[in-house]
């Protein structure tokens, strides 16, 4: 009877050992499955990071080019603005000279041109000499 009890204990322990090995094997299989799944996800994430890094580098390079072009356009704009201001200033002076000539033809003097049109004394005297002489010569 002792032999029967001893065999039952051994078979029980063998059964428990086999069940434990099966359970450990199942857990290892599940663990390996999850590790492979996470490895695949990690590889996909790394691929996305590489793609984003490449896109970011391209954007940075493009931004540098855009910034350079923007600086060129700003310089060109400043040059055009200065040119336009110069042309407008010339047009204002031309208008003043035209007004001065008309005034001289109607008998205005150099001091009046200086006062009303803001011309310099040399300019006013020259206009009076040039356009005033035409009237006296006529």
Structural class designation: mainly alpha
Number of domains: 1
The best one-word shape is rod-shaped
- Please give the alpha-carbon distance between the first and last residues: 160 Å
The succession of helices and strands, N to C, reads HHH
By oligomeric state, this entry counts as single chain
Give a quick account of the main beta sheet: strands, pairing sense, barrel closure: none
What low-confidence regions span 5 or more consecutive residues with pLDDT below 50?
none
For the CA atoms, what is the radius of gyration? 50 Å
Outline of the structure:
This protein has 138 residues and is an all-alpha fold. The chain has helices at 2-105, 110-117, 121-137.
List the helices and strands and how they pair.
Blueprint: H1 2-105, H2 110-117, H3 121-137
Note down, in words, how this protein is organized:
The chain is mainly α and 138 residues long. It has one domain (31-137). The chain is built from 3 helices and no strands. The chain has helices at residues 2-105, 110-117, 121-137. The model has no long low-confidence stretch (mean pLDDT 86).
